[in-house]
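Bumping with the actual sequence this time:
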Amino acid sequence: MALDLKIFYFLNNFAGQFKIFDAFAIFFAEYFGYFLIAFFLFFLYFSKRAKLEKLRLFWTTAVSIIVSRYAITEIIRFFYHRLRPFAGYFLQGYDRGAEEFFL
């Protein structure tokens, strides 16, 4: 069994058992990316670097994100495509009908 499936099943066993774990999982899955972006922009704005260096750091980061998302990820998916663990396997404590409502 693949490592990602082992981790998925390990974490999925806790679903619905601990409210705090569910809250952390939802936070990291849904909102943590926004906090990372805000932290990066906050760091960039308040750093003691020169303005030109801040712009270079911003554009280097932005281009790196775009290339990794739209080039590297798509190349990997082209050569090695498979379903995400939550898309093809049973989820404990998850109502599939709620997902179908939004599709």
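The tokens above came from a reply further down the thread. Helices lie at 3-12, 19-30, 32-46, 51-79, 85-88, 96-102.
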